[in-house]
TrEMBL record:
<keyword id="KW-0808">Transferase</keyword>
<keyword id="KW-1133">Transmembrane helix</keyword>
<keyword id="KW-0472">Membrane</keyword>
<keyword id="KW-0597">Phosphoprotein</keyword>
<dbReference type="InterPro" id="IPR036890">
    <property type="entry name" value="HATPase_C_sf"/>
</dbReference>
<dbReference type="InterPro" id="IPR003660">
    <property type="entry name" value="HAMP_dom"/>
</dbReference>
<protein>
    <submittedName>
        <fullName>Histidine kinase</fullName>
    </submittedName>
</protein>
<dbReference type="Pfam" id="PF06580">
    <property type="entry name" value="His_kinase"/>
</dbReference>
<dbReference type="InterPro" id="IPR003594">
    <property type="entry name" value="HATPase_dom"/>
</dbReference>
<dbReference type="InterPro" id="IPR050640">
    <property type="entry name" value="Bact_2-comp_sensor_kinase"/>
</dbReference>
<dbReference type="InterPro" id="IPR010559">
    <property type="entry name" value="Sig_transdc_His_kin_internal"/>
</dbReference>
<dbReference type="Pfam" id="PF02518">
    <property type="entry name" value="HATPase_c"/>
</dbReference>
<keyword id="KW-0812">Transmembrane</keyword>
<dbReference type="GO" id="GO:0016301">
    <property type="term" value="F:kinase activity"/>
</dbReference>
<keyword id="KW-1003">Cell membrane</keyword>
<feature type="domain" description="HAMP">
    <location>
        <begin position="319"/>
        <end position="372"/>
    </location>
</feature>
<keyword id="KW-0418">Kinase</keyword>
Amino acid sequence: MRKMLRNMNLMKKLIVLLILFVVIPILVLDLVVAKKLESITEEQVGNALLQLVRGSHLTLDRESSDFEEKTEKIMISQEIQQLVSIPSSSEYERFEIFKTLDKYLSNYSTNAIRYSMFFSDTDKQYSFVPNSDILNNGIFYATDLNALSWYKSVSQAKGKGVLRVIDKFGYNPNNVKTVAYLRQLNSIYNGETVIGYLLVSGIETPLQQDFSPFDKYADGQVMLLDQENTVLATNTDKFQIGSTVPAAADKVEGVYKLKEAGVEYMHVIHTSEATNTKLLMRVPVQSIIIDHISVQRLVDWIMFIYFLILFLASIYFIQSILKPISRLARITNSYHPGRPLAISMHSESKNEIVLLSNHFIRMTDRLNQTIYDQYELELKHKEIELSILHTQINPHLLYNTLESVYWHTFMEGATESAEMIKDLSLIMRIGLSKGKLLIPVMEEMNHAEAYVRLQLFRYEYAFQVHWDIEEEAKKYLVPKVILQPIIENAILHGIKHMSQDGELWITVRVRNGLVMISVEDNGYRQADIEMLNGILKGKENNRGFGIINVQKRIQLHFGSSYGLRYSHREDQGVRALIEIPAVLDENEWKQPPA
């Protein structure tokens, strides 16, 4: 056997292996499965039918709920409830009551569904009204309600609706049965007072219309049963409405097999606690098995032929399809956006897969170029935006002029004014910073100190300032002029009007690779921290331009995970915290994407 296989070509080897490991196993498996298919089919179909019966029963329950809602509406209507208090002293008044009720009730009746009401008339005051042996529906008065077949069960329900099989009203010599929904009408003002009894007949028609999901089962028999296993609705002539189905007695919800007259039936039963009914479906087991096995075997043969053809076709196209596809898969798996592929293109070929592979390589080249172009555009966009944000800084001319004014004022002996001019000049010089966007923390602190000295002079030293700057933090870079707007807010909105009690704390620390700059005040006013942080997130328009400017410049340099946020101070006042990465070189944060 081994020698024979060795002398065969690849195609013959594939055919032999196909017969040994595909065809024969499938045939053996099919024979084994066929023996067990009947029991498996019965179980699967039984479960499927149980789900179908359960869903259909829920639909039937909704039909009953609709009748319950309609009868509830009739019971609480003014026309019905006023019967408790309206006197009926004259025959004319009694006739008017009858006519009003009959007109009101006729609005609900249709050709199939008929609404009727029964009232007690022991004194025979409504003897002029026809009885139910004459009319199909309407208003009826009975001298003895106990004589009605359904009265006892309805009165015991105490206002709940019940389903019962009764004789059809009107001329009915053949005692044709109908299904009725019956309900006792109670006074809404006094629940113990019984007004009458509402009867909706002919409801088997809409109930049987809900049996349509079972139409695809030609041999299926579907019946809706009450607690006594009396048929309320059915789709078969074998069981009439009002007849009893003994096979359903003492059976709870589930799937059963029962033999009747030599024929085995599958019984599927679902019970409903809401309506106290059962939905029974009977299907001959033989019809289920034959249909399912025929379809299953047809599918098996189709799949067998399909896999055989697919296998033969795969052998023919293996060289022209599988290998190029495998190469394309390796290319796509090794590609990362922004990195060139280390695979060259194939020579031109008419093979569509090869062409696709070549086009993919060209596409990656174009995509990489687009990524580089996009990155350069983003860098230029950030630089332009940063330049625009810094256009508020005064030019060199004003700085040079302030230097001249300082020396002139100092020579005239106005020392205090000269110092103010010097501080303002320092603010301008650090703000310009020779065009730099990032400056050391030390320079930013000099700028902030100069601004604070000007404010102290302006407000006649009405507040105190505490500086706490770590020596290590002074060398790291920060965006210039980020403290002045925050200190200005702390003075104007926090400690401006506190006389000598106002205090300002400016702290700089380096923790876990972050430069943390804190500006705190002990302002007595309760600040709206949520609003301040909302301004920083862009949720408040046309407000807080200064702190928005600071936030944008920090995030444009270092990313959206850094920036400014506000919180309440432990004692009183507001705390503004800036967090930026500890950076010594501005180019550290301009790396191209990986």
